[in-house]
């Protein structure tokens, strides 16, 4: 087996009594596009800062391509970061920002300029070299930050919520571009995000963080289809969690709670329409949210609890708030959750 | 179905109405009036009182003093400026400018680490203590502080005593033997004047530098380290350039305050004169208002040139 690009062994980072990162074990393969996903304060950004060297773990050890990095300052690590606020130097031109890493290494002015121009064209910003960061749009600054991080040919590229400040359209564009760049360069990308859609669509593998720990690591499909715990089910794709008690009333031998994805549920006009072998529940429609291609129907169960249904807006059974609805699903759509 | 919140729709008293609110309505519809009300008093002060005084001063400098009668001749002449260019008077100008420049450089060097600590590391109580310690000297009288320094620097003062106790008298004597800036004791040498000036004006350097450093996001320093820069390189390439607007603002204070001061050099330092003292003597004792005016124009011109240089360096560009 090849050496992992980044490995965490029992890594903790405590700030006083706050356990920002608590006993994390992790291996990121070379060339992987790895996402750290979690709500704010879950420890994902702290993990990124530990890799970059801005912070030191209180316990455990981190290796970058096999090399232990305890006490190694950021300027001696072969990793580069794209910061959430981009952190471009306001007093330097775009080209000088991009070439900063080369200047520090003592590369001559002409060579620096050439290389910076090359990196700028890689991120589609040719000809912007003489501008100041303040003269660029948010999306352009993001690209400059990316070019600046890539110019040192780092072994690992760290991206801290790089698309967080962009509007939806730009974000989707940049997602595609980041993936393209990743394929072109073959570098290891470690990407921190709180946006589950972003993590699922971009990453090869995703680690889901909660309360300083990793709850689950897996491919996007695994994370989405087989959430290990209630937290993962809810955080990734906002699944319905069906309690064991309710399942037993349906005649299912319950092994605890189960997750049920909103898009696996079909709304039927009457019990007769429920397909053979499917389970069904009766519920009151609380609200219908039209979202263009799909609609989201929030229903209220008689015994308490809500179930969300997501189906194609076009050609579905029409429902209105206050109406009764039959929710039908295959038993196989239920995914058993671990007690946690 | 949820019941509408009746408490939100009923029983809400109407907004009050009165002459003041109607006056607000009137003024807010006329933007120019707001501007006029806000700017009229300061414009009057600056225009009539401040610029008016300066203009009178400038006009005075183009008159001359009749050597025999001791009266001011109200006729346009450049003879007063010719007098200003005599070697003895030029010496005063050069001495003052060199002193102001040295005080500015020393203040910047001393202020930077203090400001850096306050901006990056001090929080809560430490920050309050920082502001208190920087401002505290400004709460007591300027004269009291300068006289205190005269005692500290005097031959019988605490510095001599401390030097004897630590067997470093040689160092003091060596400093005092430097030609040009030395003298019989610290309190009557340029070194003494310099120390007092730096002490007096350093808070005016610390505060703007600290404000400038506070505006530098920590992520910039991390980005610099991330890209391979050791701390010294980050200091030179990121922190210092971004602190420059603060240093420039502070240097305007330290430079101009030293240029114009006439009390500190009179109390501490040799008997040679600085611009402020000459102005004081010429307009008071000697009654030569035109020459005093011409001397006062010197710091104004120097500051104008200085500001132009600082501006060209981009110190006023907001980041």
Kindly describe this structure:
The complex is a heterodimer of chains A (340) and B (319). Chain A is of the alpha+beta class. Chain A is built from ten helices and 18 strands. A six-stranded mixed β-sheet of chain A has the order 6-7-8-3-9-10, with helices on both faces. In chain A, strand 4 (59-64) and strand 5 form a beta hairpin. In chain A, helix 4 (109-122) crosses helix 5. Chain B has 319 residues and is mostly helical. Chain B has helices at residues 6-9, 19-28, 31-60, 79-84, 87-120, 124-135, 142-153, 158-165, 169-177, 190-214, 218-226, 231-260, 264-267, 275-283, 289-312; strands spanning 64-65, 72-73.
CATH superfamily of the largest domain in chain A: P-loop containing nucleotide triphosphate hydrolases
Give the rounded overall mean pLDDT of chain A.
Answer: 91
- Low-confidence blocks of residues of chain A: none
Measured by DSSP, the beta-strand proportion of chain B falls in: under 5%
Q: H/E order of the elements of chain A? A: EEEHEEEHHHHEHEHEEHHEHEEEEEEE
Number of domains of chain A: 2
CATH class of the largest domain in chain A: Alpha Beta
DSSP, total strands of chain A: 18
Structural category of chain B is mainly alpha
Pair with the biggest interface:
A-B, 27 and 19 residues
Structural class of chain A: alpha+beta
Mean pLDDT of chain B: 89
Residue share in helix of chain B: over 70%
SSE order of chain B, as H and E?
HHHEEHHHHHHHHHHHH
Q: Major sheet of chain B, described briefly?
A: 2 strands, antiparallel
Summarize it:
By secondary structure, chain A is an alpha+beta fold. Chain A contains ten helices and 18 strands. The radius of gyration of chain A is 24 Å and the shape is elongated.
Distinctive features:
heterodimer; A: 340 residues; alpha+beta; Rossmann fold; OB fold (Dihydrolipoamide Acetyltransferase, E2P); 2 domains; six-stranded mixed β-sheet; five-stranded antiparallel β-sheet; 18 strands; B: 319 residues; mainly alpha; MetI-like fold; extended
